[in-house]
Amino acid sequence: MIDGSRGPSQTWEDLLVAVSATQDRAAFGLLFRHFAPRIKSFLMRGGTSEALAEDVTQETMATVWRKAEQFDPGKASASTWMFTIARNKRIDRIRRERRPEPDPNDPSFAPSPAVPPDREVSALQDAVAVRHALGELSDEQREVVMLSFYEDASHSVIAERLKLPLGTVKSRLRLALKKLNGLLDPTVYGGMS
Amino acid sequence: MTIRHHLTAEILLSYAAGNLAEGWSLAVATHLALCPDCRAREVQFSAIGGEALEDAVPAELSDGALAACFALIDLDEVDLNGEAQQPLPPVIAGTPTLPEPLRGYVGGDADSVRWSSVGGGIRQCLIKVSGEAKARLLYIPAGDKVPQHGHRGLELTLVLSGSFADGAMQFHRGDIEVADEQVNHTPTAGPGEPCICLAVTDAPIVFKSLLPRLVQRFVKI
Ligand SMILES: [Zn+2]
Predict the structure, then answer these.
(1) What pLDDT is attached to residue A183?
(2) What is the ipTM of this complex?
(3) What CATH number labels B1-221?
(4) Judging by DSSP bridges, how do beta strands B123-127 and B116-117 pair with one another?
(5) What residues of B are in contact with residue A50 (Cβ under 8 Å)?
(6) Contact between chains at A113 and B94 (C-beta distance less than 8 A)
(7) Which of A181-185, B48-52, B114-118 has the lowest mean pLDDT?
(8) What residues does each domain of chain B span?
(9) Do B52 and A83 touch (CB under 8 A)?
(10) The pTM is what?
């Protein structure tokens, strides 16, 4: 992921932290150049017009700037964190719905069980495990999983796009998720017993 | 308290992808508030979204897109400085029966729900959500049966207080039942205390006995 404009050891996560810590506009520019075109493409694949996709991309990136201090490199990779912001913006601006989410500060929120520090799974390990698990899927399985991430990609839309019967898409996705579930068990890749 | 009945991988993936209608998302998010296991899986599915974003073929942006974005940011900052402090939500003592985000949708905890009777001691409160899924709170007196019903689509039922049994399966606080159209079931509230649950359906519930069906016409179940 080395890019001529970033320092050789600078990660996207470092740049987000710089935006948060010092309102670093140069760091934000690098993030923008990498992520904004991908967010726009991600929105357009869901059938959004180019003009609206461009507007929502700019709003997403402005939200990234505003919320940068909430970014925790221990909890998510930069691309996952930016995906969740783009996803929520899409629900809000394009589908015009609310996205209900749990509130960790609510007294009813059940905290996650404490994990001993030596067995903790970092966001980086999580991201590596997810990438590895996706690589273990067949091309066809990976395709239905990835297509699920574009707007309105219900099973029937995916079936239409792939010119496959709905039942085939459903069973392919079910098998893919079963395989992912086994590969992504943190007790396996996190070394926990 | 151990949760035994969880969300399916398909539903968690759709939630992570942002593809669920608001009513479904409300049931999923409220289960996530009570279930660290499903939360951990949802985090992994969101990481697949990160990969999908990273894999996207970059689209061309208009000239001056970055400058336009900075203009938006500067405008935001002016707005934020002028913005009044948000009022803090009321402090709640103890553990509310209804976790967030559900409590916000209802406008308070279980004791402030405005129930309406649907007959046979069963009460409901419809929750306003957009999209095709319908969400409601149900109140079933201790030991009472919800009239046998099938549904044309998916039904998610999340227990918030008390318990219910469906066949041989027991559902307690935090447990969620995922029933598709093949399930024709008769949930029965556990003895001792009433059961309060969040039920989300994508089609009107079809009750099998005549009386509730007549009632259904009037109360929009
Ligand atoms: Zn769960």
Answers:
(1) 86
(2) 0.90
(3) 2.60.120.10
(4) antiparallel
(5) 59
(6) no
(7) A181-185
(8) 1-221
(9) yes
(10) 0.89
